[in-house]
Amino acid sequence: MTNSNILEIHNLTKYYKGKVEPAVDNLSLNIFKGEIFGLLGPNGAGKTTTISILCSLLKPSSGKIIVAGLDLNHHLNEIKSRIGVVAQDIALYDKLTAYENLYYFGRLYNVDKHTLNHKIDFFLDRLRLKNYKNQKIRNFSGGMKRRINLIAGVLHDPEIIFLDEPTAGIDVQTRSVIRDFLLELKSKDTTLIYTSHLIDDAQKLCDRIGIIDYGKLITIGSPGQLIEEQMDCNSLEDVLLVLTGRNLREE
Amino acid sequence: MRRLIVSIYKEFLLLIRDIEGIALLFLMPITLVIVITLIQDRSFKNVFESKIEVVIIDSDSDSLGFSFRKGIKQSQIFNVTEYISQDSVSLDKARQEVAEGKYQIGIYIPEHTTQKIKAKAIHLVREQLPFSINTDKETAISPAIIILFFDPITKESFKNLAKSKLTEFAAQTETQIIYETYSRVIDALTNQSSQVNYPGEPIIRFDEVMVSEYTSGITPNTVQHNVPAWTIFGMFLICIPIAGNIIKERNDGCLARLKTLPISYLTIITGKLIVFIIICLIQALLIILIGMYLMPLMDMPKLQVTNWLTLFFITLASSFAATGYGIVIGTWASTQTQASIFGSVSTVILAAIGGVWIPVTVMPDVLRSVSEISPMNWSIQGYYSVFLRSVTLIELLPQITKLMIFYACCTLLSLFFRKYQANK
């Protein structure tokens, strides 16, 4: 990890139509190349909205985003080809096989056929799905779908990968495989921006964590730093509860 | 281009793996065209194909009754049953049979009808001459009345047609009698027997010629109407699977993933468009082949195709319009249920006002004006032009242009909906 910025967020604000309160409120943040950055917060804190804006799914109300030195407003297509997105939803075609899904998304990223086939085989093998290459997604378990979903976002060797709850709803074994895989990507200098409700995962994976609530960035630092800064906190979960309170939130 | 090809391939795979969907896409319009054509065959047939069942009670038993019966029999629009009798039993029986629907028309020629007409003719001839002559004994002149009775469910248009034909026979017989009377008067005046017979051939004859050298000469029939009509209906019904495809893609999160990829929405929908247009073309070809080869085996007229090139272009333009319509519904609707209900109901309405069920020409004036806004009407008019008028590609351009403009509007609207949703 270097301390050069790969992503700069300046005064990002997002209002949804018909809402008075902003979902993201004047958020500014720099993310370093090669780090795993965790964005944590309670439900409705603005994590998914922020990620959605960063990967161009939503338009911000105001603010500026610089990705790898390029302004998101002016170089959208170039940025799109340099980022990978692993959404919370399993975004796969259930009537297509694992290979057909990966081939389709890989080709849309302009990866050439030969390289793509090689990568598909490699990643399927790496995530222990080699034997399911030609099976339809509809026959896969939740964990298998999550792994294919992850591969679909990394086939084109993106510089930045946005991961929204990549380990949601899966068993411990699959989570462990996915965690190892993400660390492997990080070792290749890929930047990962990660949101999760699973604090344990975040603590194990992330170099730095930003905690947001009501659309505002409350604090930022390494997991150890954040724990140290808060009196009587022994874990990241304690930190989160202290900073965002114990009240239940609406989505 | 590479992205478009891979999108087409993906859409193709998705489509061929939905066997039930494909079966419906092809079987539904094929079933519709066969069933509806069979049902409409009788009402659509022209008078020469569908005969009117007639019962004649001839109590006259003279030249009028004879020539009337002969004329009706020779006409190809009536199927005649005769009762030559002077008793009222035959009349009552015939009336009952018409009332029960066994016959559509009953014709009663009363006694002495010929004599009455002859007397009337003599009277007319006498009035024309400047001097009086002795001919047959003059009888009281009262009009000859022929009584008609109709099956209560007979349509007014059918009645008028029958009355018009019967009036024609009556006029012929009347003219013949007057002619013969004049002949007899002239014979009486000249003391000669001219032996001139009434010429059976009419003095005026109607010849039908084609309005242009390109006119096909094929008459409209149930197949010429129903094959294009239900082909168009089937094409537009494709809006439901297209919309379903778009909504599923959106609900599954695949569309969101695609939005994060360096591919335009236009490329994504063009991929869908091409695959579904190919489906529309195959669908149309199947129905046309059914019209050409299967319909004749079912005792229906054969679909006659005179120009495959113009047929291809009107089918292609209709496919664009239908697919564009599906894309706009898919982009606008948020659930499969919304898309299915709106898609099917709107297709049925567009079909009804567009002249799919019944030709626009038999619609009331208001509906005829409304039909102008239905893309199905533009399409069906295009097909009529191809099948019945044998138009050239240039002459077909107005319909093709309208359909392509409709497609362009649908695409723009779907881009607008997409932008609107993204800005929510």
Question: What oligomeric state do these chains adopt?
Answer: heterodimer
Mean pLDDT of chain A: 86
What kind of sheet is the major sheet of chain B? 4 strands, mixed
Distance linking N and C termini of chain B: 31 Å
> What percent strand of chain A?
15-25%
Structural category of chain A is alpha/beta
Shape category of chain A: globular
What topology, given as strand order, has the largest sheet of chain A? 6-7-8-3-9-10
CA-based gyration radius of chain A? 18 Å
Give the distance, in angstroms, between the N- and C-terminal Cα atoms of chain A.
Answer: 34 Å
What is the helix content of chain B? 55-70%
How does the helix and strand content of chain B classify structurally? Answer: mainly alpha
The DSSP helix count of chain B reads 15
Total strand segments of chain B: 4
Q: How much is the average pLDDT of chain B?
A: 81
Shape assignment of chain B? elongated
Sequence stretches where pLDDT stays below 50 over 5 or more residues of chain B:
none
- Low-confidence segments of chain A, given as residue ranges, are none
Taken in chain order, the helices and strands of chain A follow as EEEHEEHEHHHEHEHEEHH
Would you kindly provide a written description of the structure presented here, covering whatever features stand out?
The complex is a heterodimer of chains A (251) and B (424). Chain A is of the alpha/beta class. Helices cover 36% and strands 23% of the residues of chain A. In chain A, β4 and β5 (70-71) form a beta hairpin. In chain A, α3 packs across α4. With 424 residues, chain B is mainly α. Chain B has 2 domains: 2-44 and 215-422, no CATH class; 54-207, abc type-2 transporter like fold. Chain B has 15 helices and 4 strands. In chain B, strands 2-1-3-4 form a 4-stranded mixed beta sheet, sandwiched between helices. The longest helix of chain B is centred in the middle third of the chain and has 35 residues, at 156-190. Classes of the chains: A alpha/beta (251), B mainly alpha (424). The interface between A and B is medium-sized, with 32 and 25 residues.
